[in-house]
Amino acid sequence: MNGAASLWFTVHVSHFTLFYVLPQYVTLTADSRRKRYMADISSKKVVLGVTGGVAAYKAAELVRRLADHGIDVHVVMTQAACSFITPATMQALSGNPVYTDMWDARINNSMAHIELSRDKAAIVIAPATADFMAKLVHGHADDLLSTLCLARDCALLVAPAMNRQMWDHPATQRNAVQLEKDGVTLLGPVSGDQACGETGAGRMLEAQDIADAVAAFLAPKTLAGVRVLMTAGPTFEPIDAVRGITNRSSGKMGYAIARAAIGAGAKVTLVSGPSSQPVPAGASVTHVQSAAEMFDAVKRNAKQADIFIGVAAVADYRVDKPREHKIKKTDKSQLTLKLVSNPDILGWVAAQATPPFTVGFAAESQNLETYADEKRRRKKVNLIVANLAQSAIGADDNEVMLLDDTGTHKLVRAPKEVVAKDIVARIATLYKAGKKRR
Ligand code: CTP
To answer: Fewer Cβ close by (within 10 Å): the C or N end of the chain?
Structure first.
């Protein structure tokens, strides 16, 4: 819809929000998705250690969220944990055998405490009780999980979960400090409502936050110290005091790229249109509504950026002179709104005298590769990520192709978290190659 500087556009205003009409898309089942991407990515393996706290129920959700990141989860539970959630649940969700006993006959040499961590990138304890933290500090090894932690040669990440007074107790505080001195990474806890009915610090992080933190911890630091500026989500162009023009972008892809870039060590500034996605931990986020506000925020930050990634579905047009008050219904059958073109944010960034490494997105409904490559050349961007709009917008997974000077690279359909990591890896490779040439 680019080109004309202004356009008369006739719309029937029957809803508070207008949507661009998109064809229905076909969704794959969760299982077929999982099989397709697990076959294609080199998934990292972790041990998830579950100890006996009421937050153990969140460990089930955590298994799913880790799997979204392409992480292969192997669960080890303490006896107390089995009082809160069953090994059968964890086995069904992780797709791997669950271990609870040092002497499990399924390990050939009866060395479960050594074997189970040997091919793993990390052990993640979630929830970690006050008692288990104390055991870690003192090197106790009286059950499978504590022995596994003592005998590990991989990273250990611990998500404490306990009553606020247990967390605030000087003994637990000493243990938390000591664990960090011992090289253990603490994830949380946070403040909030507790299962015991009290409110305070000691609540376990949500499963999504733990999974994101683990994925970020495991990611190769290919963008260490690199400053990434990016846009994400839709824009909202007001018509009057209560109505506007927007689109069906959820922000999922952009936020996943922000998380992946943070995981790769980048300093991320995210300019986001309206989205219900949780703010990525570690990102500096500016929330905007319209394309004009998004443009202003990008202009303020562009000079300091090494890389710019335009993921936002920016409205090409906005309403000329939105009404201050709600437009009242009349007996006329039509209402005419005048639309004027919005600035092309990506185009502006790429046209700077010394532009950052610039990445754009192309959502097409047909002729994907041809249109996307034409967009890449016209906007003079280093890399275009192209996808079919009808199968990407609002979905949890995505299938994209990456187009740059060297040609087209197709990525297999996968959850957006996994696709985001592959995109960031490609950006890092091209960005570093470009720096070498300069
Ligand atoms: N973009 C932008 N500012 C705009 C419009 C788009 O920064 N005003 C960015 C998007 O974030 C995305 C890319 O440009 O990275 C999409 O290009 P665009 O030409 O807008 O795509 P379409 O809207 O799909 O274009 P067309 O309607 O011509 O297909």
So the answer is: C
Global pTM value: 0.79
Among candidates 10, 8, 4, which has minimal Cα distance to 339? 8
Residue-wise pLDDT tens digits, 97-156 = 999 998 888 877 778 778 888 899 999 999 999 999 999 999 999 999 999 999 999 999
The per-residue pLDDT for range 175-188, each reduced to its tens digit, is 999 999 999 999 99
Residues 285 and 381 in one domain: yes
* Domain end point (choices 218, 250, 283): 218
Domain interval for residue 232: 227-319+340-437
Q: Are 81 and 204 in a shared domain? A: yes
| Ligand 1 site, residue 363, Cβ cutoff 6 A | yes
Ligand 1 pocket residue status of 361, Cβ below 6 Å: yes
Among candidate residues 218, 243, 278, the one where a domain is terminated: 218
Give the pLDDT confidence of 262-295 residue by residue, as tens digits: 999 999 999 999 999 999 889 999 999 999 999 9
Residues with active-site annotation: 196
